[in-house]
Structures are given as C-alpha cells and as structure tokens.
Design a protein that fits this description.
The chain is of the alpha/beta class. It contains 14 helices and 15 strands. Helix 12 packs antiparallel against helix 13. The longest helix has 33 residues. The protein binds guanosine-5'-diphosphate.
Length: 450
C-alpha cells in the first residue's frame, strides 16, 4: 500500500565538508526522475557511477547513485540515493536541481514518516531509528537495535492479543443482558486482567532503563569538600577520553558533562553545590545539589578514606539509598581508616583519583548498577520512552477500572468501554495513531533527510 502522493528530496547527511554527501529523493515518479537525470533506471539496489548534470546540462559532479524500487526501499516508495562529493555547495546544487525537476523539500522526519505510513515500520521502530541515530553508548545502541527489530512491537502484539481475547469473551455476554457472567468466568477474567496489569507494569518499569540509555545515566557526585570529587570527575573524563559534550544547563547554573563510562553514557551533573562546603554555610549550594539530585538515577558519594566516615547533611542523605548510591572511598593510595571502621550499608569501592587505582572497579560498579535496571521481556531488551510510558499508564488505569468493575459485579457492558480504552492506548505504542497532530509532533523531532 503506497500512500505517498508526491516526491520529496533532501540532503541525508550533515551540511559540511566531508568525503561524501548523500542526497535522497523518494515518492511516486522517482523512477522517471532517475531516468531523466541519468538516462536509465538501473537494476534496483545496484549502485551506478555517472556524471550528474542539472536540467541545463551543466555538469555538477561525478556521483554514485542507487535506485530502490517500491516497496523495497526505506520509505516503501521508489527512492533514489545519490552519493556526491561531500561539498555542501555541490549537495545544495543537486537538491536544488531535484526540486526544479518536481520534488519538494522533505520535512523533518518525512522519509521515516512515509516508511511508517507505508507499513515498513511500526511507530516504535520509527522512534528506534531516532534512537539509533542518537545512541552514544554500547547499551543505547543495543536497546535501539532491539526496538528497531521490533522487540517492543512484539511485546505489544502479545498484550493486545490477550486483551482482545478477554474483550471477545466479555462481548459475548453483552448480547444477553439478562444473563450475568457466571462467577467462574468472572474469576477467570479477573485473573487474566491481573496478568495484563502485571505485564503492563513490567513494561513500565523499563522506562527508567530507557531514560538511562537514551539520555545517559543522570549521575550526581556528592561528598565533603576535598574528598576528591573534582579529581574523580577529571579522572573519569580524562581516562576515557570520551567527553561527548559540555553544555551549560539551560535554566539553572549547573554544568552537565556527558561522558562514556564503559558501555554506558553518564550524564554527570556538576552543580555549584558539589564544590561547596556542605557545612551549613553554603546553604544555597546544597539546595542546588538537592534540586539536581531529585532526578538523579545514581549518586557517587565520594568519601575521603583517610578521614572518619562523614555524616552528610540530612537533605542529601535522605536521597541516598543502597539502590542508587555507590560510595567511593577515595585516596586509597594513602594509609587510610580501615573499612571496618566505616560501616556503610551501600555498595562501595576503593579508588585513588590521584593515581587512577581501581577506577576500573568503579566503572564496573556503575555498569553493574545500570545493567541491574535492565528488564528483559521474553529474552529481548525493552526500554520504553516517555511516549510509551504515557500510553501504558493510560492503558493500566483503564485495566484497573475494568478489574474493579469485574470485582464489583458491574454489568459487562460497562467493562467493554474500559477494555476498548486500554486497547486504544496499547495500540498507540506500535502506531495505531489516529491523530495527525501526534504524528507531526513525533516526526518533527527527526532531522531533515531522515
Ligand atoms: P573536591 O573538593 O571534593 O572536589 O576535592 P578535589 O578533587 O579538589 O581534591 C582535594 C584534594 O585532595 C586535592 O589536593 C587533590 O589533589 C587531593 N586528592 C584527590 N584525590 C586524591 C587521591 O586519590 N589521593 C590523594 N593522595 N590525594 C587526592
């Protein structure tokens, strides 16, 4: 089923000087377009070498081009891919020529949107394309690849099939209003709804891991002045040489450092407070830290191992839990206070930020923490995003209402609408989205040419 009506074109690679640049055109008429430019429509998916001459026969470049015949293309429509020299001026001339020959400029995400509309990808896979482009760590890449290969879609299909089955059993009774559901059927339906609610919860739990792989593990370093927080940060950043970006916080005065740590991406939040004395004097600093700390996935609590174990301000210690904190005993190159005298109920590791000793151990701990948040559904990794989470919450509420109606022995026809609501919400994840506005919003986050 091909729904696209017109031809779109765009540069698919970033604007800038590079070895090659790729320009794409897609839509009905692309085969005639290919013939008009290159004088032939070659065998699909086989690249050809040719001059590129514009409509005025002006030689623009020497290119490789590939024709993809519908439906075996990314979009599902006929598609032409042109690899030209990576000069933004040449790429611009080629795009301009494609526009002159009847294409219109593609909107952000429009190639992927067409792939979705043509049934080449479900919506969760279209989102995975985005995740794949933005993946900056081994785990992010793995999660994106699983989603692109349909892991989430399959999990949703299983849930939807179960729900359709329950709905069918209930609807069978709607035609017989005088008959109530027999108690054993009521119990069975109640049990099945319970299972669905649990499965929905299992999917919802993957949201934290999803946020961690997509945005990076939001990590806050806390600890007393001079414990070695800056030294540790520098050691982590310098050691891996994988600093991705340093961006000033947009709304508040803090810095975020994004760095690769093992297979993960860490988003280290470096507040003013982290460097200030949490002694009661620097209240503002602590407040800032606490503000940032609320959304943290992970705390690295740096402790000077040569000194007695400190007692942090309660506003911070209240946030530190064994499930979200790694205590980093630093300065272990110096003679320290024996660990036995520092009883901590937290996972801990001894390092030296100065010498780098056992920083690998710390990285293993961080990886272990992140991987422990991973939930497998079947044997596939599922890591939902905020949109999926929203839809699942909606489905769960509807299922809970339905379940309470079953328990309350309410008439079956009242149940049916809740189940339908849940079905709609589950359906939205893989993409039975009726609203153009939702699709506009979703694909607007893509880049032009994708
Ligand atoms: P912060 O105030 O917590 O950020 O601490 P800094 O990173 O500024 O470190 C405070 C002092 O401790 C500095 O003089 C560092 O050189 C020293 N320091 C940090 N880490 C270590 C370590 O692992 N071993 C030793 N011997 N000194 C360290």
């Amino acid at each position: 089923m091909v729904t696209s009506k017109d031809m779109i074109a765009a540069l698919a690679t970033p604007v800038g000087t590079s070895a090659i640049a790729v320009v794409r055109a897609s839509g009905p008429g692309t085969s005639a377009l290919t013939k008009a430019i290159f004088g032939e429509v070659p065998q699909p998916r086989v690249s050809r070498h040719s001059d590129y001459r514009d409509r005025d026969a002006r030689l623009l470049d020497d290119v490789l081009f590939t024709f993809f015949e519908a439906p075996n293309s990314y979009t599902g429509d006929d598609t032409l891919e042109i690899s030209c020299h990576g000069n933004p001026y040449i790429a611009r001339l080629i795009v301009a020529d494609l526009l002159a020959r009847g294409c219109r400029p593609a909107e952000a995400g429009e190639f992927t949107r067409r792939a979705f509309l043509n049934g080449r990808l479900d919506l969760s896979q279209a989102e995975a394309v985005m995740d794949l482009i933005h993946a900056r760590s081994e785990r992010a890449l793995a999660a994106a690849n699983e989603q692109l290969r349909g892991a989430l879609g399959r999990a949703m299909e299983r849930i939807i099939a179960q729900l359709v089955n329950i709905t069918a059993r209930i609807e069978a009774y709607i035609d017989f209003p005088e008959e109530d559901l027999p108690p054993e059927d009521r119990r069975a339906i109640q049990g099945d709804l319970e299972i669905l609610i649990q499965e929905t919860n299992r999917l919802l739990v993957t949201g934290q891991y999803g946020a961690m792989v997509r945005e990076g593990i939001r990590t806050v370093i806390v600890g007393e002045p001079n414990a070695g927080k800056s030294s540790l940060l520098n050691r982590l950043v310098g050691r891996d040489r994988a600093l991705v970006s340093t961006e000033p916080g947009t709304t508040r005065d803090y810095l975020e450092e994004t760095l690769s740590v093992g297979p993960h991406l860490l988003r280290l939040v470096d507040t003013a407070g982290l460097h200030e004395a949490p002694s009661g004097l620097e209240r503002r600093g602590i407040e800032k830290t606490v503000e940032q700390a609320r959304d943290a996935h992970l705390f690295l609590w740096v402790v000077d191992a040569t000194r007695p174990f400190p007692i942090p301000p309660t506003s911070i210690s209240a946030l530190l839990k064994p499930t979200n904190t790694v205590v980093v005993f630093n300065k272990c190159d110096l003679p320290g206070v024996p660990l036995s005298e520092s009883p901590v109920a937290f996972p801990h590791v001894r390092v030296s930020a100065l010498t780098g000793q056992n920083v690998d151990g710390l990285i293993d701990r961080i990886s272990g923490f992140a991987d422990s948040c991973k939930t497998e559904i079947g044997d596939e990794i599922v890591a939902i995003n905020a949109r999926h989470s929203f839809a699942l919450e909606r489905a769960k509420s509807a299922l809970l209402v339905a379940s309470s109606k079953v328990v309350g022995r309410e008439p079956v026809e009242l149940l049916a609408s809740d189940l339908r609501e849940a079905l709609d919400a589950f359906g939205e994840i893989a993409g039975k989205v009726d609203s153009e506005a939702v699709l506009d919003q979703l694909f607007a986050t893509f880049c032009i040419g994708k």
